[in-house]
DNA sequence: GGAGCGAGTTGACACGTTTTAATCAGGTCG
DNA sequence: CGACCTGATTAAAACGTGTCAACTCGCTCC
């Protein structure tokens, strides 16, 4: 079929123009006369030419793409964020490279290196922990970075949701409902979301005049349904609390499932509330109470911030945007 | 900080060697003397050098990456496939570029063009329809292609699950359970999975001696929870059947939710079965019966096939692998 | 009619890497 | 002592595109 690869210069020869003109047709169509343009476009179709993106990127010094590094692609929360990102990015004629860090520093660092090698214009990242060293490394190489769902120090853009408020909201709700012994099921405290939500939970306890130890902690390595199940089994063994607050809905769904299997009634025996309000929460065995976040907006705004910074690196003022979360009460804590 | 971008030649100067040696350190470490290697690696660290992937790709003619084009990143089925892909690919020191076609031909074509521009070594794709023209275009440019969850003609690799058998399994089960009037909630018939599963469903009817019209069809444009909800509302308006078979679990979850809200009891008033057996199915308001597929395997095997073809394009024999699905009965059809 | 102009086009170079053949040092063998 | 080999290093030539200064051509204006 196509003998070898067909490049810009073969197109040029066929259309009877110079390679420079073909390049102009691709990148600055307005600069070339309509008739010439048609001839070139015809040649492109005839030869089935596809621009070599690497060459373009090499020449330009940067890729028309941004990276998105999330903690877990299996979590609908991040899928929704990604939708927001994707929509903005494709409007602006860029591409997204989606990477999964699986909450691991090592994978995060590897992903960032790949993105740096690809010379992406910028990176959206939900860091796996508090240590932003690898992010700083990236910025030192002139890659714009916006933190997603993670607030940032002043010299960086970030878009987040007030996790302290969310934790407070959840636990206050559980306390209002009459709970006295609580449990917090969470991923590692190195993950900002986890520690912030705990902070909010503790604040709620203080406000209610309760000691911090009224909140038992159950930490699992991975914030997914398996983690939730494991936590629930430990809680079952150790004696159930009145109410359980989970650091995200995936955990909560796992907890819910394990409890159901053990014959524990939610919310009669134990009240349960999650975090993120993912689509599946409402459809659970017992519809799940949760803390809703403006997920799609998170991705959308973050991307706009990032692309603005890319387009005008100097005139750009870093901003930290913080949304407020919202309590959604359903069957699991009624 | 880093003045301009630091390239291989600045590293070379600093280490007191030639650029070629630096390249060798990166790509063929065994060719360079240990002492020299250390010096170069030190220089790399000192300068914070990151290899420019575009230049490498340009020179090599292809990217150490493969593309994965799925119908819906929001669907846990594809997320699981992606995990299988990712695991194999990273073992072989490649990268995955994940693309979402959203079941749209246009987005599919755009994604394939981007992948072609990036000069990926190969592409794994679940086509949005029967028309494989864009896939053929890609192959004409020497990009290896493996079809995922979609059986292929002989000149192409594919890894799929027997959807006819799956449809048969589901409907036979519903019939065994005593259903007489059935509905099939599905995405567009242009999507192979949808039409194949219908074929299986009809076969089951024939086997049972029932006419094809015993299976009412309800087709929605998108195979997600919203589509399911819409279908359920139409069914409610038109008069409910005894049993509903959904072309995937996302649809089934939407149907289930809409029915619950309308006060319809599952499985007492209507039996329900989905397809894919995604993780959330078991946790539904009513745990969902489903057809299980070896999802992770699908991604894993497909990737192995693809990379084998890339590594040895000539000695490669195309194969079509087909797995058998499995019936999982839960509350929704008990 | 020549200077000046603007639109359209061209040719050559640069981007950063990998590869290939050539070079070099050091050692072995005849 | 020179021919020959081995292993380590180098210089130079690609890879395919985008940019930019230079150039052409047809016009207008004085």
UniProtKB/TrEMBL annotation, chains A, B:
Q: What keyword terms does UniProt attach to this protein?
A: DNA-binding, Transcription, Transcription regulation
- Coiled-coil region: none
- Keyword Metal-binding found: no
Q: Where are the transmembrane segments?
A: none
HTH lacI-type domain location is 6-60
Q: Can you name one GO molecular function term for this protein?
A: DNA binding
Domain of life from the UniProt record: Bacteria
**CDD domains tied to this protein:** HTH_LacI, PBP1_LacI-like
Kindly indicate whether the keyword Thylakoid belongs to this entry. Answer: no
Q: Mind telling me which SMART domains this protein's record contains? A: HTH_LACI
- What PANTHER family does the annotation carry? HTH-TYPE TRANSCRIPTIONAL REGULATOR GALS, LACI-RELATED TRANSCRIPTIONAL REPRESSOR
Q: What is this protein called?
A: LacI family DNA-binding transcriptional regulator
């Amino acid at each position: 079929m196509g003998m070898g690869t067909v490049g810009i210069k073969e197109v040029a020869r066929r259309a009877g123009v110079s390679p420079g003109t073909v390049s102009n047709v691709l990148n600055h169509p307005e600069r070339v006369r309509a008739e010439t343009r048609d001839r070139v476009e015809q040649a492109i179709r005839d030869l089935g030419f596809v621009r070599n993106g690497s060459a373009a990127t090499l020449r330009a010094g940067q890729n028309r793409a941004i990276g998105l590094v999330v903690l877990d692609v299996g979590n609908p929360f991040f899928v929704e964020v990604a939708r927001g990102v994707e929509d903005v990015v494709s409007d602006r004629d860029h591409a997204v490279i989606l990477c999964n860090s699986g909450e691991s520093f090592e994978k995060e660092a590897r992903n960032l290196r790949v993105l740096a090698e690809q010379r992406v214009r910028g990176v959206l990242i939900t860091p796996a922990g508090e240590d932003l060293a690898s992010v700083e490394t990236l910025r030192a190489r002139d890659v714009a970075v916006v933190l997603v769902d993670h607030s940032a120090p002043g010299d960086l853009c970030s878009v987040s949701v007030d996790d302290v408020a969310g934790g407070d909201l959840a636990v206050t709700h559980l306390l209002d409902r009459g709970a006295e012994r609580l449990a917090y099921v969470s991923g590692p405290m190195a993950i900002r979301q986890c520690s912030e939500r705990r902070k909010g939970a503790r604040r709620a306890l203080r406000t209610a005049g309760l000691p911090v130890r009224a909140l038992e902690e159950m930490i699992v390595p991975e914030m997914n349904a398996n983690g939730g199940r494991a936590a629930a089994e430990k809680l079952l063994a150790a004696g159930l609390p009145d109410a359980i607050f989970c650091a995200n809905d995936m955990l909560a769904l796992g907890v819910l499932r394990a409890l159901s299997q053990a014959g524990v009634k939610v919310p009669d025996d134990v009240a349960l509330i999650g975090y993120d309000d993912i689509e599946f929460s409402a459809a659970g065995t017992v519809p799940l109470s949760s803390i809703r976040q403006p997920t799609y907006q998170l991705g959308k705004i973050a991307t706009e911030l990032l692309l603005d910074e890319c387009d005008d690196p100097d005139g750009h003022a870093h901003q930290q945007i913080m949304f407020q979360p919202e309590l959604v009460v359903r069957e699991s804590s009624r």
